[in-house]
Design brief:
The protein has 774 residues and is an alpha+beta fold. It has 4 domains: 2-24 and 596-773, no CATH class; 31-126, no CATH class; 142-222, Alpha-Beta Plaits; 244-584, 3-Layer(aba) Sandwich (Rossmann fold), CATH 3.40.50.200. Helices cover 27% and strands 24% of the residues. The protein is built from 21 helices and 35 strands. The strands form 10 sheets. It has a 7-stranded parallel sheet, sandwiched between helices. A 5-stranded mixed sheet has the order 2-29-35-31-33. A 4-stranded antiparallel sheet has the order 3-30-34-32, with helices on one face. Strand 9 (187-194) and strand 10 (197-204) form a beta hairpin. It is globular, with a radius of gyration of 28 Å. The two termini are 37 Å apart.
Length: 774
C-alpha cells in the first residue's frame, strides 16, 4: 500500500562538528578461527576449480575471493607470489588467477594463520571473508538469465572474456577461446579486441552453451543487444491513442524555459496553460526548426514518452507553461540569456505560480575549468534562493566530432578529460543538474542484421551517455545530481562515423504537420525534463514542499545505475567512487516510493532552520521489528538540501555551509555531550557499509548518503545537521532554511509492516512531548 510521507521533528539544538570516519573492517576477533574457516573454504574451492573449469589460455586456476563486509579498497593480492588479480566484480568480489605455486602458497599461509593466529601478509588474509568458485550462474548475463535460451534452433551469444592489458596475453586469450569454440563446432560471428574489452559473438548449439558457461576465461555470457528503439515507436499514428484531456485543475505546473513551443502539438495542446516569449526584441513564444523546445516539453509533461506509447495512452497530470528564452542557434539574440531567463522566471512564478523550471541549455563557450561560478549558473543560484523555485538543468553535451578515434575502446575515459567538463549553467549549486545514461544498445540496422557487429554501441544499457559532460562543480561539489536516459551512440566499424537511430529518446515532434507526431533525439537536454517532470509531480503528494524538500526527496530515492558501478569503479575504492559521482552523481531516481511511502520503504521529511555554529539532532525512528528475520540488508538513506547565499567575488562561493552526519550512540544525551565536549570532532560518523563519506558529499548543497545494516546497531541512530558559515558571512544571526529526508527501507522483506511501526514510534514521541508540556 502507499501512504503519505511521515514528518520528522528535531530533538534538540547544540553545536558543531564530527570526526573523519574509520576505513575498512577491523581485524577479526579470532584470527585462528578466521584462518581455519578460510582454509576449509579454500580447499573446497581448489577441488571444485580442478574439476569444473574448462579451458583457458593457460593452466592457472580462477579464484573468487569474497571480501569482508566493510572493506572499501581493493587489497593488493598481487603481493602474494603466483596470484594475479583479474577483476573486482561489484563491491565485495575479487577474481584472481593463481598458479600452482600461488595456490600452494595461499594454502600454506592459511594453515599458518589457523595454527598461530599470525602470518606474513596477514592484512591481506584478514580482509577475506571466504573463497568461492566463479560459477556458471556468475557468468550468466542479465538478459540470458531473464529471457533464457531460444526454444529451438542455434543460440547466438555474446561472450565477454577476462580483459588483458598485455597484447600477447590478449591475443592468447582470444586464440584459446576461438579454438575452444571450434571444438564445440560453434561459429564465431564477430569479435572485439581491446585492452579493456574482449568479446566474441558466437552461434552455437544449445548443448554447447553449458560448456561455454564453464569456460574459465569467460567473464559473462549473455544474449546480444536486442532492446533498441523500434521504428514503429517513432512512426506511431497519434490516432491510435485516445485523445488526451486536460490535466486536473489543481495539478502542479512545470515550466519549460527553452526555444519556444508549438502549442498546437496534439499531445501537448490540452495541457498548455501559457506560452510567452522573453527574447528581445522578438517576443514570439513559438518554437521553430528544429523544435527543440517542443521535444523538451513533451518529456517535461509526460516523463517517459516511450512508455506512454507502449501503454497506449497519454494522460497529462501536470499543467505545462512555456517561456521562450533563447533562439535555437543564438542568431539575432543580442541580449544576455541571463536577462531573458530572469524575466521569464519572475513573470511565470508571479503570474502562474510556477515552482519547477526546466532549462535544457548549455553554453559550449563556458566549459568549467575550476575557479568561480559565473554567468547563468550564478543567476539561477541567486533566483533559487530569492524566489524559492527549483531549476532543473542539463550537464551539456560533447560534440560528436570531438569523440576519440576509437570511442568504444576509449569509453568512458574520454568523458573525464578537462574538455568534457560541465558547461554553464550546469555548475550551479542550488539547482538540480542532470546528466545522461544510455537506454538502448541496438541501432535500427543492428535490429535488422543481428549477426553483424558493424554498429558497436559505445555505451551499454545503464552506462553514461557517450556525450554526457562530467563534474564536479566548484569546490568538488557533486555534479551532476542525477542521470536520466539521454540516448546512446554506436560507432560504425567501417564508415568511421556514429549512428543514433534506434538509440535515442522518444519525445513529441513540433513538426507534426509532416505526419510524424514523435521524434527521436539524443542529448542531456532530453534527460533533464524527465527529472523536472518527477519534481513537479511530487507537488501532488507534498504540495507545501519547498524547492529544498523536492531536492532532498529526489536525492533520498536515487542510486547509481547498477551497470555503471563495475564500469566506473571496478576496484571499489574512493577514486572509483569519485569517478561515479563525476559522471552519474547520485544516480537514477527510483519512482517506486518517491511520491508516497510503502509498507517496506518509509520516507520521513522535515523542513527546519538553523543558526550559525549550531547543530540539530534527529533520532531516526527505527522499530525493533526491522531487525527480526536474520541478516538481510536494511537501508537508511539521508538527504540534506539547502540553498545558500552565493558570491562570485569570493573564492568560497557559498556563504553558508551545512552538512550532516549519521552517528550511533546510547542516547541523545551521549550525542549532545560528545559535541559539547569536542566541537571539532563530536562523534565519528558510522563508516561501515556507507555509500558516500562526508568529505565526498559536503561540498554540495544537495548531500546524500546511504547506510546498509545487516544486523541491529549497538545503539540509537541519529542524524546531526551542522551549520558553519564561511568567514566572510554577513548574515549574522539569520536562520538558514534546509530540508531533510530520511528513508528507511526493508526492500527484501515483502511482508514488512515497517510504515505502521515507524508511525507508531512517531505518535508515541508526540504523546511524550505533550505530556512533558503539561
Amino acid at each position: 500500500m502507499a501512504y503519505e510521507h511521515l514528518r520528522l521533528e528535531k530533538e534538540s539544538p547544540v553545536t558543531d562538528r564530527h570526526r573523519r570516519p574509520g576505513f575498512g573492517p577491523p581485524p577479526p576477533a579470532d584470527p585462528r578461527g578466521h584462518g581455519n574457516a578460510l582454509l576449509q573454504s579454500f580447499r573446497a574451492v581448489r577441488a571444485v576449480a580442478a574439476n569444473e573449469d574448462l579451458g583457458g589460455f593457460d593452466d592457472r586456476k580462477l579464484l573468487k575471493i569474497r571480501l569482508r563486509e566493510g572493506e572499501r579498497q581493493l587489497p593488493d593480492f598481487n603481493l602474494i607470489e603466483g596470484l594475479e588479480v583479474v577483476s573486482q566484480e561489484g563491491h565485495e568480489v575479487v577474481l584472481a588467477f593463481a598458479t600452482a605455486t600461488g595456490l600452494n602458497l595461499v594454502e600454506e599461509r592459511l594453515a599458518t594463520l589457523a595454527r598461530d593466529g599470525r602470518v606474513t601478509r596477514k592484512e591481506l588474509l584478514f580482509v577475506i571473508d571466504a573463497f568461492e568458485h566463479w560459477t556458471p550462474e556468475d557468468r550468466t548475463g542479465a538478459a540470458l538469465a531473464e529471457q533464457g535460451l531460444p526454444e529451438e534452433g542455434p543460440c547466438t551469444l555474446d561472450v565477454e572474456l577476462w580483459p588483458q592489458e598485455m597484447p600477447r596475453r590478449r591475443q592468447s586469450t582470444m586464440d584459446a577461446f576461438v579454438a575452444f569454440a571450434a571444438e564445440l563446432r560453434a561459429e564465431v560471428l564477430d569479435r572485439i579486441e581491446s585492452p579493456s574489452l574482449l568479446m566474441v559473438r558466437l552461434r552455437c548449439s544449445r548443448e554447447a552453451v553449458e560448456q561455454v558457461l564453464r569456460y574459465r576465461d569467460a567473464r559473462t555470457v549473455d544474449l546480444p543487444p536486442r532492446w533498441g528503439l523500434a521504428i514503429g515507436t517513432i512512426t506511431a499514428d497519434v490516432n491510435r491513442f485516445p485523445p488526451p484531456g486536460p490535466p486536473p485543475a489543481e495539478a502542479p505546473r512545470v515550466a519549460v524555459l527553452d526555444a519556444g513551443l508549438v502549442t498546437g502539438q496534439p499531445l501537448i495542446a490540452p495541457a498548455v496553460g501559457h506560452a510567452q516569449g522573453y527574447v528581445l526584441p522578438d517576443r514570439s513564444p513559438d518554437d521553430s526548426e528544429p523544435w527543440h523546445g517542443t521535444a523538451v516539453a513533451g518529456l517535461a509533461l509526460y516523463g517517459d514518452v516511450e512508455a506512454a506509447i507502449a501503454a497506449g495512452a497519454f494522460t497529462p497530470n501536470l499543467h505545462l507553461v512555456s517561456g521562450r528564452v533563447f533562439n535555437h542557434d543564438g542568431a539575432d539574440q543580442t541580449e544576455f540569456v541571463e536577462n531573458a531567463v530572469e524575466r521569464a522566471v519572475r513573470d511565470l512564478n508571479d503570474g502562474f505560480g510556477c515552482r519547477v523550471f526546466n532549462l535544457s541549455y548549455g553554453d559550449l563557450n563556458k566549459v568549467y575549468t575550476g575557479g568561480h561560478v559565473r554567468g547563468l549558473a550564478y543567476t539561477l543560484d541567486r533566483l533559487t534562493r530569492e524566489l524559492g523555485v527549483l531549476f532543473v538543468v542539463a550537464t551539456g553535451n560533447l560534440k560528436e566530432e570531438t569523440l576519440p578515434g576509437d570511442p568504444v575502446g576509449s569509453f568512458p575515459g574520454y568523458l573525464l578529460e578537462e574538455g568534457a567538463r560541465l558547461v554553464d549553467p550546469a555548475t550551479a549549486l542550488n539547482v538540480v543538474t542532470v546528466g545522461g545514461i544510455a537506454r538502448h544498445e541496438a541501432t535500427r540496422d543492428a535490429q535488422r542484421y543481428p549477426q553483424a557487429i558493424e554498429a558497436r554501441p559505445i555505451a551499454r544499457t545503464g552506462h553514461p551517455f557517450p556525450l554526457t559532460r562530467s563534474g564536479p562543480s566548484i569546490g568538488g561539489a557533486i555534479k551532476p545530481d542525477f542521470v536520466e536516459h539521454a540516448g546512446n551512440l554506436a560507432a560504425m566499424r567501417l564508415a568511421g562515423r556514429t549512428d543514433h537511430r534506434g538509440l535515442g529518446v522518444v519525445t513529441t515532434n513540433g513538426g507534426f504537420a509532416s505526419g510524424h507526431v514523435f521524434r527521436e533525439e539524443v542529448g542531456t537536454s532530453f534527460a533533464a525534463p524527465t527529472v523536472a517532470h518527477r519534481a513537479a509531480k511530487l507537488l501532488r503528494s507534498v504540495p507545501d514542499a519547498s524547492h529544498n524538500l523536492l531536492r532532498a526527496l529526489l536525492g533520498a530515492h536515487a542510486d547509481w545505475p547498477a551497470p555503471s558501478v563495475p564500469l566506473l569503479n571496478p576496484n571499489n575504492n574512493s577514486e572509483g567512487r569519485e569517478i561515479l559521482t563525476r559522471l552519474v552523481g547520485y544516480g537514477c531516481i527510483n519512482d517506486s516510493a518517491l511520491e508516497q511511502s510503502l509498507d517496506n520503504v518509509v520516507s520521513l521529511i522535515c523542513e527546519e532552520q538553523i543558526g550559525n555554529d549550531r547543530c540539530q539532532f534527529y533520532a531516526v525512528p527505527i522499530p525493533d521489528e526491522l531487525w527480526d528475520g536474520g541478516r538481510r540488508t536494511r537501508e537508511v538513506t539521508v538527504a540534506l538540501a539547502y540553498s545558500p547565499v552565493v558570491r562570485t567575488t569570493r573564492l568560497d562561493y557559498r556563504m553558508t555551509k551545512l552538512k550532516f552526519n549519521l552517528v550511533v550512540a546510547a542516547d541523545l544525551d551521549a550525542v549532545a555531550a560528545a559535541f559539547q565536549r569536542d566541537r571539532d570532532q563530536g562523534l565519528p560518523e558510522r563508516g561501515t557499509n556507507r555509500w558516500l563519506s562526508g568529505e565526498a558529499r559536503q561540498a554540495g548543497t544537495l548531500q546524500v548518503s546511504r547506510w546498509r545494516f545487516q544486523q541491529r546497531p549497538q545503539g540509537q541512530v541519529y542524524v546531526v545537521v551542522t551549520r558553519q558559515d564561511a568567514g566572510w558571512s554577513t548574515v549574522g544571526d539569520e536562520l538558514e532554511p534546509y530540508a531533510l529526508c530520511v528513508s528507511i527501507a526493508d526492500r527484501s522483506n515483502v511482508q514488512s509492516r515497517l510504515y505502521a511501526h515507524v508511525q507508531a514510534i512517531l505518535r508515541a514521541r508526540i504523546d511524550q512531548r505533550a505530556r512533558a508540556r503539561v
